Amino acid sequence: MPSQPAHRIAPLGGAAELERVRGASLMDGGSPLGAALGSVLIAWLILVMHSWRAAFAIAGIGTILCGMVAWRYIRNQPREHAGVNEAEALHIERAQALEHAKEAKDLSGRSIDFFRFRSVWLMFFGFMCCTTLYYGLFTWMPTYLHKVHGFDLQQMGNASFLIFMCGFVGEVVGGFIADKWLASGAAPNLVMRVMFGIAGVVATISVFCVAYATNPRMVVILLSATLFFLRWGGLYWSIPAMLATRNKVGALGGLLNFGGNLGGISVAWWVLRRAVWSTRRVQS
After folding, report:
1. Domain limits at 72?
2. Where are the beta strands (DSSP E) in the chain?
C-alpha cells in the first residue's frame, strides 16, 4: 500500500513530539477499526443483497468517497486548517522548532545510509513479524471460525467486529500509555522495548491458547486479547520520526511499510499453500 507512508507522515506535521505516538496510533488504528466496521457492514450487505460482488462494489464506492473527504479536510500544516486556533498552532510550531534544533547537522542526507544502523534493521524485521501475525489472523480467522466452530455469516461478522474493535481500542490505549511514559522523561528505547515485549508475550500466549480452546466464546475472547495487544505494534510507526530527520521520515516509513507488507505476503502465501495441501489430501 503506497499510501501507508504518507498516512504515517501526517502526525509528524500535526503533532508535538510528545504527542506523536498517540497520533501514529490513531492513524494506524484505522486498520482494525475499518476491519471491525467492515466485518458487520459487508456481512449485512451480502445477506441483504445476496451478492458479494454488489457488497464489495458498495464498499469500494464508499472508500472513494472517504478519500475525497480526506482530500478536502486534511492539510499539510496545522495552521492551514480552519479548526486549529492560534494557541494550538503555536504550541505545535514551538515544539517542532525545538525538535528541529536538536537534529544532527552533519548527516550525509542519503537514504541508503539508514542500512548502516542496527536500529533500522531491527525496526524492519520487528514490524515484519508483527504484521505477519496480524495478516495471518486477518486471512485465516474467518475460515477457522466457520469450519472449526460452525459460525455462520452473521456470527462471523459479529465476532470479527468484536475482535478487531478490541484491536483498535488496544492500539489507542497503547499509544496513550507510551506517550504518557515518554512525557515523564523515560528513554524511548526503554518505553518501546517494554511495550513491544509485553505485546509480543501476551499476543503469542493468547493465540497459542486458541488451538486448545473448544468453547466458541472463549475462542473469541482469546482472539480479542490477541488483537488488543498485537495492535500495540502500531507504535512502530512512531519510530521513523525518532530515528530520522524530518525530511527523511517518509523514506524510513516506506522501508517500514515494505517490511510489514513482506510479512503479510509471506503469511498469506503460507495459509493458501496449507489450504491447497489440505484440500488435495482430503480428495485423495
Report:
1. 3-283
2. none
